[in-house]
Amino acid sequence: MAEFTMELNDEQREVRDWLHGFAADVIRPAAAEWDEREETPWPVIQEAAKVGIYSLDFYAQQYFDPTGLGIPMAMEELFWGDAGIALSIVGTGLAAVGVLANGTEEQIGTWIPQMYGDASDVKVAAFCSSEPDAGSDVASMRTRAVYDEAKDEWVINGTKTWATNGGIANVHVVVAVVDPELGSKGHASFIVPPGTPGLAQGQKFKKHGIRASHTAEVVLDDVRVPGSCLLGGKQKLDERLARARERAKASGGERVKNAAMATFEASRPAVGAMAVGTARAAYEVALDYARTREQFGRPIIDNQGVAFQLADMRTQIDAARLLVWRASWMAVNGKSFTAAEGSMSKLFASETAKQVTAQAIQILGGNGYTREYPVERMHRDAAIYTIFEGTSEIQRLVIARTLAGMPIR
Ligand SMILES: Cc1cc2nc3c(=O)[nH]c(=O)nc-3n(C[C@H](O)[C@H](O)[C@H](O)COP(=O)(O)OP(=O)(O)OC[C@H]3O[C@@H](n4cnc5c(N)ncnc54)[C@H](O)[C@@H]3O)c2cc1C
């Protein structure tokens, strides 16, 4: 087990500086253009692939860093560059983690390379769980997967929504109901391979922020996938369902209800780190502006009203980073989240990003309100952190129930 440390080692510093260079030289200069275009920034993803930032190897290396700081450090730097572009670069990771967590070695080896493609032909992947009537309440999911034993195929029907890279992905990972009696315990994940008939993009959403990241509905109409596309395989699924049915019987046959709350402690700090990146970016712009903008014959930072705002912004950002780093260290070192520390880190960092980016606009005055300066975009981008991967209300629910010793459902 690695001791908790806030000191980056030489290797981590080198990686951080390299990522920061990419964020400053490639991502940040492209941010305004792709925000306006509201399109996936394929050339930037390709640049990231060329230098090795868009690859499973890179994220796996960071993930297995025993200090736990690899992933938060990478997320903070990339999202410091720009949130929409960075999400286009790391969004495939959501689907890849779904396969890594539940797939067999063969599935991992077959599908993850197809999710990323290569530098000459980059691909993206999508993780499709949310539905129009099943957002926070994942147990209400309706997309159904039925096994056709004669053909050893699964037939999937339903509509997914809010899928990052939905419809433009080479590989879609789709969560579907295989036993409706078991609530979220009756869900399973499937690979939908490239070009599978019946999968189509529905509405592409025009968004408030992170507009360089593609978000869309995914419609599944009699989508047939081979049995080998069930993540983890049929035997493992049958065993898991049998255990869940036993437990449901023991609890008086009550339908098992289990919302999107329980299992995300380890992944939520990564979203917190994205929020820290956006907040830090806005704070830096505001600090620089406050030092150089003069009114009443002196820099505006000479006014306590402005300087104290900057002091609070920096304090909150540093506090958010500490919560994120602690939770990431706990996740990598197998600590149990007895106070929902992962949710805590995401809650605090995402609320900080919203607040700090709003303060940055205020410090830049009229300029802050225009698209000539980046803080307006950063504020729009920051709003997503309190919504996806569990809203702030859901984080509070998880923390409160954990503290109370109540079941999280
Ligand atoms: C840009 C973007 C990208 C996304 N990417 C993906 C993706 O790649 N894959 C994917 O599967 N999903 C994705 N999502 C979906 C995201 O995770 C959901 O939007 C989120 O979980 C909230 O669900 P909802 O939008 O249905 O809101 P709802 O669950 O309807 O919530 C609406 C409001 O009610 C509150 N609320 C709900 N239940 C409670 C409660 N019990 N107590 C208190 N308050 C409550 C919420 O906090 C919120 O304020 C994405 C969403 C967005 C906007």
From TrEMBL:
Domain Acyl-CoA oxidase/dehydrogenase middle: 126-223
Keywords associated with the record: FAD, Flavoprotein, Oxidoreductase
Any one Gene Ontology molecular-function term assigned to this protein's record: flavin adenine dinucleotide binding
Pfam families reported in the protein's UniProt record: Acyl-CoA_dh_1, Acyl-CoA_dh_M, Acyl-CoA_dh_N
Name used for this protein in its record: Acyl-CoA dehydrogenase
InterPro entries: Acyl-CoA_DH_CS (IPR006089), Acyl-CoA_Oxase/DH_mid-dom (IPR006091), Acyl-CoA_Oxase/DH_mid-dom_sf (IPR046373), AcylCo_DH-like_C (IPR036250), AcylCo_DH/oxidase_C (IPR009075), AcylCoA_DH/ox_N (IPR013786), AcylCoA_DH/ox_N_sf (IPR037069), AcylCoA_DH/oxidase_NM_dom_sf (IPR009100)
Residue stretches making up the Acyl-CoA dehydrogenase/oxidase N-terminal domain: 9-115
Sequence similarity: Belongs to the acyl-CoA dehydrogenase family.
Location of the Acyl-CoA dehydrogenase/oxidase C-terminal domain: 259-403
Species assigned in the record: Streptomyces dangxiongensis
PANTHER family the record matches: ACYL-COA DEHYDROGENASE, ISOVALERYL-COA DEHYDROGENASE, MITOCHONDRIAL-RELATED
Signal peptide: none
Cofactor: FAD
Keyword set includes Lipid biosynthesis: no
SUPFAM superfamilies to which the protein is assigned, alphabetical: Acyl-CoA dehydrogenase C-terminal domain-like (SSF47203), Acyl-CoA dehydrogenase NM domain-like (SSF56645)
